[in-house]
TrEMBL record:
Belongs to the enoyl-CoA hydratase/isomerase family. Pfam families: MaoC_dehydratas. One of its GO terms (biological process) is fatty acid biosynthetic process. It comes from the Bacteria. Transmembrane segments: none annotated. InterPro entries: Fatty_acid_synthase (IPR003965), HotDog_dom_sf (IPR029069), MaoC-like_dom (IPR002539). It comes from Pseudonocardia bannensis. GO terms for molecular function: fatty acid synthase activity. Residues 20-98 form the MaoC-like domain. This is MaoC family dehydratase. Signal peptide: none annotated.
Length: 149
């Protein structure tokens, strides 16, 4: 269960978000492909993935980004509190053809708390880490969240 917005009033630099571990399966890739319209065979066909030099079928980058964003929205308690969110894709998440899938490990830490120049709102910058197989898969991952007054 995430932290409610009421709990966010005392947020300070260094606070850690509750870690989140998610499994990504081939079935998740199929569902995401249907929702996004991205049917690139590197996301479902081992032969095609190998032909282009990948170690196997990989998760859609935007799916990985969305799953990491879930860590922030769960913590904030309200997706509308997220003012901005950005990442760089650094490594693929290889999804095996089994029932277990790939383990995505997500963590976050409050890196900055400031007052917005535009509207005076308190803003927390959250730095995120997404790891697969012990390696970071998203670089420069951060979100800005509006905190309660």
């Amino acid at each position: 269960m995430g932290v409610t917005a009421v709990d966010l009033a005392g947020v300070v630099v260094g606070d850690e978000l509750p870690a989140l571990e998610l499994r990504v399966t081939r079935a998740d890739l199929v569902r995401y492909a249907g929702a996004s319209g991205d049917f690139n065979p590197i996301h479902w066909n081992d032969r095609t993935a190998a032909e282009v030099g990948l170690p196997g079928v990989i998760a859609h980058g935007m799916l990985t980004m969305a799953l990491a964003g879930r860590l922030v929205t769960r913590w904030a308690g309200d997706p509308a509190a997220v003012r901005s969110y950005g990442v760089r894709f650094t490594r693929p998440v290889v999804v095996p053809d089994d029932d277990e899938g790939a383990l995505l490990e997500l963590t976050g830490k409050v890196a900055e708390v400031r007052e917005s120049d535009a509207d005076g709102a308190r803003i927390a910058r959250i730095d995120l880490t997404a790891r697969f197989d012990g390696k970071t898969v998203l670089g420069r991952a951060s979100a800005e969240v509006t905190l309660p007054a």
